Amino acid sequence: MTQADILAVLSGGVVGLVLALIGGGGSILATPALLYVVGVANPHIAIGTSALAVSVNAFANFINHLRRGNVKWRCAVVFGMAGVVGASIGAAAGKATDPQILLPLFAVLMIVVGAAMLRPRRHEGDGDVVLDARNLPKLLTYGLGVGALSGFFGIGGGFLIVPGLIGATGMTMIQAVGSSLFSVGAFGAATAASYALDALIDWRIALLFIGGGVIGGAVGASFASRLARRRGALQRVFAGVVFAVAAYMLWRSLFSA
After folding, report:
1. What is the dihedral angle through the alpha carbons of 133, 135, 140, 143, rounded to the nearest 10 degrees?
2. Which string of b and e fits 133-164 if b means at least 16 CB within 10 Å?
3. Each residue's pLDDT tens digit, 161-198
4. Residue 155 binned pLDDT confidence (cut-offs 50, 70, 90)
5. Nearest by Cα to 145 from 134, 157, 133
6. pTM
7. Quick one: three-class SS letters along the chain?
């Protein structure tokens, strides 16, 4: 096993852990890791490979959370399917937008989302939420909107899916994290399929990345369940990661040469 192979497994472990812990961050972390840590030379191959790896890891972590009872799968499927439609619309708009303003705009959006997640909630959420006639329109609307933003900015959108699920249904944070992984997987699969058709995936690196992600995901799901028992802890971790990534994106976009 080469150094690049080892780095691919370790990078996948970190991405899998973050995905399982907060339901987002996989796409934002995976592509830079493949480019700057693993050493994938072609950015397009890095994007295609990361999309495949994040998709598989997201579905694997979805199963981990499902086994732990952290998934409202009917809500997750409705939200995810609406999101796939929205992503295709958003991607078309994103391609027509100056790329120099996309990342700063997304960073600002992330800061707004992080601040919203830190707002005190009257209760920790309804753990008995089910798909019904009241939340179905919200799930479709929020899913379409989050998918459109995800496609527009060209990023998986996990940071938006979690608050979107909470806003649409009122489910608990841990349930939103677990349920969000279906959408993350679906969005990633659609992107990966497009890149695979153009032979822009390094299958060896993808498999190593996925292997590390499965291990990291199991650890992350365990941590997430423990944090969920402490009032507001998972929300604070989620917001902290959002703020950190948003700050980095703003720095790279505005001040990096």
Report:
1. -160
2. eebeebbbbbbbbbbbbbbbbbbbbbbbbbbb
3. 888 999 899 898 888 888 988 888 887 787 788 788 88
4. low
5. 157
6. 0.75
7. CCHHHHHHHHHHHHHHHHHHHHCCCHHHHHHHHHHHHHCCCCHHHHHHHHHHHHHHHHHHHHHHHHHCCCCCHHHHHHHHHHHHHHHHHHHHHHHCCCHHHHHHHHHHHHHHHHHHHHCCCCCCCCCCCCCCCCCHHHHHHHHHHHHHHHHHHCCCCHHHHHHHHHHHHCCCHHHHHHHHHHHHHHHHHHHHHHHHHCCCCCHHHHHHHHHHHHHHHHHHHHHHHHHHCCCCHHHHHHHHHHHHHHHHHHHHHHCCC
Give residue 61's pLDDT. 83
CB neighbours (10 Å) of residue 49? 30
Structure-block tokens of residue 194: 């497009």
Residues 6+ apart with CB under 8 A from 186: 55, 80, 81, 83, 84
pLDDT in tens, 43-94: 888 888 888 888 898 888 888 888 888 889 899 999 999 988 888 788 777 7
Rounded to an integer, what distance in angstroms lies between the CA atom of residue 131 and that of residue 232? 25
